[in-house]
Amino acid sequence: MGFMKSCGRLVIYYINGLFGLVAAVCLVGGMFVKFGSDDLKSLLPDLMRELVRKIDPILRATHSSSEKFLNNLDLEKLLGNAADVFIVFGAILLFVVFWGCFGVSCKSKCGLYVYSCILLLILIGQIVCAILITKRRDLIDENLKPQLRSSIKDLYQGDHAMDAISVLWNAVMLKFSCCGVDSSQDFVSGKWNNTPIAEIINANKQLDTPLVCCTEAARSKSATNWWNCAISTLNPSDSNYNKGCYGEVWQYLEHYINIVVGCVGGLAALELLLAIFAISIARGMDKKNKVNSEKSGKRKR
Length: 301
Description:
Elements: H1 2-35, H2 37-43, H3 45-61, H4 66-72, H5 75-105, H6 109-135, H7 137-154, H8 164-175, H9 198-202, H10 216-219, H11 245-254, H12 257-300
């Protein structure tokens, strides 16, 4: 039993040390992006070139240029939401790591029990998510689809926008050759810019779908009025207007479900092991305190 407790302490130390390093990277990286975007642009030119390379399909799809993109780029605006996610994730992970290290280092039963409870709650959450994804996808659809439609209606700004929501939607629509959540109808009541380039304004036209909803063949045309693929009457040969991204993304994720299940299962097993070690060490302290109390009582007699 003593050997198991010693192993448990070492496992908790090393695993939490690793998680603590991950938490620190997330916190520092998130804060650096959020509060030092100008420094990041100057310090990491290779990163900026890679970012432009990743977004290049969007730029080409809308006949824009990388120079214009870089001149107007605001990393805080583009990655602000992602930075917030990393900061919150890092803070939560650091909170969990603190209780594990505190409980083992200070031999605190309270710290170990709190640590094990947190891990078990996370484990239960993972099990619930797994059940919802595999058995009750209808509940996910009912709650997620309205949120996605709302993001298009209220936050999506168009093909040339550089905010995180717009860039993400444009990237998804290009990657999966789709349009909107279910179809181009999701853009009908939106606030997005439907006259993104001078050619369309000069022709006194308005887009019915973003340009990224056009097929790659239609976007590649260099002819005048190439943007007609995004104006009624929409043609399936030139536009993906009737192909929703929600179903396409789900279908793509289903190809990797075994990998996801394996990763989540491994993480769940690790969490359970850490919780068992923490509870075992805490219970050992209880027994030790009980024995010491009994010995102390006998001496007094």
